[in-house]
Structure formats: structure tokens, C-alpha cells
Amino acid sequence: MSENKYNLIIIGAGPAGLSAALYASRGSLSTLVLEKGLCGGELNNTEEIENYPGIDAKKGSELAEMMTNHAKKFGAEIKELITIHSIDLKSKIKTVKTDIGDFYSDAIIIATGSEHRKLGVKGEKEFAGKGVSYCATCDGAFFKNKHVVVIGGGNSAIEEAIFLTRYVEKITIVHRRDSLRAEKILQKRAFSNSKISFIWDTTIEEIKGEKTVNQVILKNLKTGEVSNLSCDGVFIYVGLEPNVSLFKEQIEIDPENKVLSDKFLHTNINGVFVAGDVRNTPLRQAVNAASDGALAAVSAINYIESLED
Ligand code: NAP
Q: What DSSP letter does each residue of the chain carry, written as one string?
């Protein structure tokens, strides 16, 4: 056990997990970060970051690399592409069972982030990767000179639609209300972009195609009118779903599956802290996630020191 035993294990290496790793390792905790994909989390799916203080217009993946190297500099051990089979949060010594072995720690920080919510309409699953996408940065280039539909009215939908204008000929944003939730600065950019048009008060009933997507069925929520719209792709941005499946049964979460915590980011379980998009937070930004990571790490340091008293 001793060689796989750490003071702290951090689950997830997005901005929350990497910031926690930096603060914890700099604070002299032996720190292991376990990441199911690649370091950076959602940063890797963001083409350009322009609202992280001090970082002006940098690629998300570059910021991710900077954060990773910064955490490693102070000694954090980071393992990518790890499958976690189970976690025991409740015992005094926490256990994380993975495909590369079992790891143990005094404290855990949950920084598992969230993933894009599915729309749940007919055709969405069938055409995933065949015209249906949740990531403009990853798939935008496949739609050069095409017409794509973007669904949603939040920051993700509008930001990604603006990004897609680099490639596509035309974008139709379909939103279920008649006003956007996105920040005003993004709205202004979208409204003034000649490639972007809007269909308001409307939802997607079905995504159709043959080998790939060729149309969506729309329903106007005010009139009930059903119509079809030809398109080559559908990008879905209807919110985020916290990644809690690994520990949902053990920890207190709210009705939207967001992990609950106190102001020190301590969850209801002794020695278990939470940071970033997976928690019940009013603002989901890289800067908040990084701030959460710092606080969760300091709280973990204080917790571990209290064990030694
Ligand atoms: P969001 O803010 O929750 O917006 C989701 C959008 O999808 C809303 O406009 C919502 O409509 C719509 N929607 C939800 N369920 C739907 C359904 N079943 N059918 C049709 N439309 C549906 O999610 P998000 O845009 O992914 O952003 C998530 C978080 O990340 C937010 O806190 C956001 O600020 C943050 N974020 C920030 C940036 C940035 O700062 N640059 C970029 C991306 C994301 P209603 O408006 O009617 O509810």
C-alpha cells in the first residue's frame, strides 16, 4: 500500500484539478492526479480563451499545457487516460481502484467536471459522429462551406457558433425562447455576423438523414407549427451534466446532480473536497474552476494537518 499511498488524490485534470494539484504539491502534500482523458478537460475543447485574467486569446489546449507543467513543477504526479473502476470515499483512508492498480490517500478532491448534456431527440444517438456533434473545436473543420444548425442559447452555443463561422457557409441557431442566455458581448458578435441567423421559440423534434445528417424537424413552441430545415450538421449545446456517476451513491448532491459543499469546498464526507464544474457553483468558467482548485487544496492541507495533531 505505501508506494501507492498519497496525502491527496485529485480526480480530474481540468483547470480545477490542475490548480488543486499546484496548490497541494506546492503546499508539500504528496499529490496524485488521475485523469480519464487528457489534461485540460474542457479547455481542450475551447478554441480560444479570452477571459482568463492575464491570458489574452490563447488556445485552450495551450493554457491546459501551461497549467499541467506548472502543477508538475511542484511535484504533482499526473496520470492520464486512466479508467477508475470504483472509489471508496467514506473510509478514513480513501481507495481509488483503477485499470493500472489501486491508489490510497488521506484526502480526495473531486474535480471531475461536467459533460455536454444530450438533447434526447430521435436521431441524436444514431447520427452522433455522422453530423451530430458536441464539440465545434473538434469537428468544425468537417463542415467546410456547409450549413449547420446550432441548438441552445447559452454561452457555449453562441461562442461555438461564432467559432464555426471560420469554416461553414451558414449557421442557423435554433433556440427555444426569444432571447439568449449568453453574455451580451457574445450576443453582439453573433447578431452582427452575417453567417449566423436565428430561429426563435423553436425546438428540434428529430434529426434526420441517410448516411449523415441532412435535415432537422423543428417545432415552433408558440404556434405549434412543425417544419423541416435542410442542414449538414447539428451542434448541440443545451447545458452541462456533472460527472458524478463514480461516487453519486456516496456523496450529497443536489437534484441537478451537482455536488454540494460548504464554503471551504468540503463535501458531506470527511476528507473529501470538490472543485469546479462538478459542484453546485453559480458560474462555470475556467477562472472559477482554478479558484475552486486552490481553495479545495488549502482545505485538504488543513484537513491533513488536523489528522496529524
Ligand atoms: P447553459 O448556460 O445552461 O445554456 C444552455 C442553453 O440550452 C440555454 O439557452 C437553454 O435554454 C438551452 N436548453 C437547455 N435544455 C434544452 C432543451 N432540452 N432543448 C432546447 N434548448 C435547451 O449551458 P452552456 O451554454 O453549455 O454553458 C454552461 C456553463 O458554462 C455556463 O455557466 C456558461 O456561462 C459557461 N460557459 C462560459 C463560457 C465563457 O465564459 N466564454 C463559454 C461556454 C460556457 P434556456 O435559455 O431557455 O434555458
A: -GGGEEEEEEE--SHHHHHHHHHHHHTT--EEEE-SS-TTGGGGG-S-B-SBTTB-SB-HHHHHHHHHHHHHHTT-EEE-SPPEEEEE-SSSSEEEEETTEEEEEEEEEE---EEEPP---BTTTTTBTTTEES-HHHHGGGGTT-EEEEE--SHHHHHHHHHHTTT-SEEEEE-SSSS--S-HHHHHHHHT-TTEEEE-SEEEEEEEESSSEEEEEEEETTT--EEEEE-SEEEE---EEE--TTTTTTS-B-TTSPBP--TT-B-SSTTEEE-STTB--S---HHHHHHHHHHHHHHHHHHHHHHH-
The ligand 1 site (C-beta within 6 Å) comprises: 51, 119, 151-157, 159, 176-177, 181, 203, 237-240, 284-285
What's the pLDDT tens digit per position in 209-257? 999 999 999 999 999 999 999 999 999 999 999 999 999 999 999 999 9
Q: Atom 26 in ligand 1: which residue has the minimum CA distance?
A: 239
CATH (residue range 2-115+240-307): 3.50.50.60
Q: pTM higher than 0.70 for the full model?
A: yes
Q: Which of these CATH numbers, 3.50.50.60, 3.40.50.920, 3.90.1200.10, 3.40.640.10, describes 118-236?
A: 3.50.50.60
The mean pLDDT of 247-270, rounded to a whole number, is 97
